[in-house]
Amino acid sequence: MRAFLEMLGSGESLADLEQLAPRLAPGEIHALRAEGFLQPTGTARFEELSIPDVIRTLRALWGAGSGGVRTAAKMSHAPMHLGWFEIDDEPCELVLVADDAHAIAAAARRRERALVLVTTDRAMTPELRRRHGSRARVRFVVLSECLGARDGRICRVDLPVPMASPLPPRAHALPAAAPHSPSARSAQRGAPIFEGAVAWEPLVFMKLDNHRILVRFERRSRVLTAHDLDLARKGSREHRVLFEMLMAFCENDGCLKTRRFGGRDATKATLSRLRKKLKAAFGIEDDPFLEYKPGTGWIARFKVGDGEDERENELSPGARAMLQRAGKLGRR
């Protein structure tokens, strides 16, 4: 998703799929099309970025109304007013800015209470994050950290329960790339889950429920299913034993010492298959697991956290109140 948001913030109007597709996670191209963010141009290689559809989706995801404001047709280098919504029964302006230092500085000077959506964190300094956190009157939210693809839709993944836009999907049929073309091969291989991740130790895996895990790298996070990690049976979302084994690591603080997957040799064989899948999905060459130790079992190199607590701790007061009213806070 970050690669698309970088294009959005730069003001690009056309997406070159041969360059974009390899930088996106599996399923993200489909979700971008379903939301209308990418529109056909009549050629397989290029698609158009639809700024009005991006704006309408952002309004819907944050529950904002346009207030009669005309929906912009293209990105602006100045802060873009999208509409209004309420936080704790107070009006709050919804604003969109590119990851440009001058645009962000201009947005920070707004007098009214505002939620500023920044496309990526490229120009976000620690000082800006501190001054414009969840309690600030002008609060910054980085879209590359809170938007992701889930079940073929663009969702807010900064909530305990990922939320898709209530707008109907706008998926369209597009000409497929030739099976042996470079773009087709790149899309088939898929891009790493997190661009820039070269070791397992900085990653944090968190179980959300029996079907989803949240993985965090630096300030980015992704909600992943067995299908996203290529751990589901072909043509089905049914779990395979590999995903169950990954869940077992998440449930036991990163350790695996159990006979539920068979004896030591059978467990070792299953772990070997899981190792290959994880290395392919994340693009990390190192082994995600330490060597087996008698009495201890296998230990993951990645960290394991509590997904629900992690998400709830990061909620703004407005988002917390909204989820409590909807009865979704704390739901697994």
Q: Which whole number gives the mean pLDDT? A: 82
Order of helices and strands: HEHHEEHEEHEHEHEEEHEEEHEHEEHH
Report helical residue fraction. 25-40%
Range of strand content: 15-25%
- The global form is globular
Number of strands: 16
Structure commentary:
- The structure is a single chain.
- Helix 9 (241-251) crosses helix 10.
- The radius of gyration is 21 Å and the shape is globular.
- A hairpin with a 6-residue loop joins strand 9 and strand 10 (163-164).
- The model is unreliable at 171-189 (pLDDT under 50).
- The chain is built from twelve helices and 16 strands.
- The protein has helices at residues 2-10, 17-20, 28-34, 51-61, 101-108, 126-131, 143-146, 182-189, 241-251, 264-282, 307-314, 317-326, and strands at 14-16, 38-40, 46-49, 80-87, 90-97, 114-118, 138-142, 147-150, 153-156, 163-164, 203-207, 213-217, 220-224, 255-256, 298-299, 303-306.
- The protein starts with a helix and ends in a 6-residue tail after the last helix.
- It is an alpha+beta fold and 332 residues long.
- The protein has a four-stranded mixed beta sheet, with helices on both faces.
List the helices and strands and how they pair.
Layout: H1 2-10, E1 14-16, H2 17-20, H3 28-34, E2 38-40, E3 46-49, H4 51-61, E4 80-87, E5 90-97, H5 101-108, E6 114-118, H6 126-131, E7 138-142, H7 143-146, E8 147-150, E9 153-156, E10 163-164, H8 182-189, E11 203-207, E12 213-217, E13 220-224, H9 241-251, E14 255-256, H10 264-282, E15 298-299, E16 303-306, H11 307-314, H12 317-326
Parallel strand pairs: 5-6, 6-7, 11-16
Antiparallel strand pairs: 1-3, 2-3, 4-5, 8-9, 9-10, 11-12, 12-13, 14-15
Helix pairs in contact: 9-10
